[in-house]
Amino acid sequence: MTGAPRVYRARTVVEVDAGGLLHVLGRPPLGEYLRRLWQRRHFIVADSRARVQTDSRANLLGSLWLVLNPLLSGAVYFVIFGLVMSGSRGIENFLGYLVVGVFLFQYTIQCLNQGSRSISGGRQLIRAFSFPRAALPVAVVMRETLRFLPALATMLVLVLAIPFVVPLMDPGGETIALRIGWPWLLLPAVLLLQLVLNTGLALIAARVTARIPDLTQIISILARFWLYGSAVFFSVDRFAEYPALSAIMQVNPMFLVIDIARDLLLYGVLPSWGAWALLAAWSTGLLVLGTLVFWQAEETYAAP
Q: 63, 224, 234, 282: which is deepest, by most CB within 10 A?
């Protein structure tokens, strides 16, 4: 029995250049890693803007909450520490002092808390695509920075309005001087150092919580201690009787950020070069440390 004749076709072998293919779980050298991260900067910014707009639409008041949250927190701290506990004693322009502290501290804490959840929240994306995982915590910092901009504008408006509003509320009270001058021009430098600081903190938080997500709760608890240690609603002078504690508080990076901003905005004083140098050392050091620590664990982030 004979069947149909078999037809044999010649096979063509096509060579494909795999030079551009990347292993999803691979870790490139640090220089290459940073280069790839920089190449994705436009995507990070666009994605951050889209997420901010989406989150705002989910709330009834929308973007207004970006301003209301720090305002309500400041009001609570004012009632508790300014009125009930008389924490305003010895502090000139306590309302302005409180506003600057609360707004700037909440910006950093949001970057820290959201950065600690960036890897667990992006696990499916990590397993599906090859990209520098540091893009996730960096995108979180970018997102929180965009959310902070309306709050920053509100903070500056309040700082300008408080000297006029307080005398109307309490005609017999002490008049608050308004000091607007060239030191205000240095505020962007403080905010830039704070942005660098926040990025380093987000990278470190993302790394330590990648394998143990429960550490996000520990970070939230430690953030409360950090709040009290940053002189947000009281003066560090209250701890003059405890030199060691006072010294620790004054080298705290968030205390430096807030204290320098208060000197510039409220009191028209140029902070010492030592304060600037110490803050710059903290910001740069944490960014370098966070980058190295995060990069070293690059291959582990896709693990279940």
A: 234
User: 52, 45, 246, 53: which is closest to 138 by C-alpha?
Assistant: 45
**pLDDT tens profile 35-47:** 999 998 888 888 7
Q: Whole-angstrom Cα distance, residue 154 to residue 279?
A: 25
Across 195-213, b (16+ Cβ under 10 Å) vs e yields bbbbbbbbbbbbbbbbeee
The CB density around residue 170, as the number of other CB atoms within 10 Å, is 10
Whose CA is closest to 134, among 245, 295, 259, 20? Answer: 295
pTM over 0.70: yes
What angle, rounded to 10 degrees, do the helices at 135-169 and 187-210 form? 130
Contact, 137 vs 145, CB < 8 A? no
Query: Is pLDDT at 274 greater than 90 in this prediction?
Result: yes
Helices (H), the chain: 30-39, 41-57, 65-77, 94-116, 118-121, 123-128, 135-169, 187-210, 215-228, 243-250, 253-265, 273-296
Tens of pLDDT, residues 221-249:
899 889 888 888 888 877 777 788 888 88
Q: Can you tell me the mean pLDDT for 86-103?
A: 77
Cβ count near 233 (within 10 Å): 24
Residue 177: per-residue pLDDT: 67
Asked if 108 contacts 254 with a C-beta cutoff of 8 angstroms, the reply is yes
Q: Ramachandran region of residue 246, left (φ > 0), alpha (ψ -120 to 50) or beta?
A: alpha
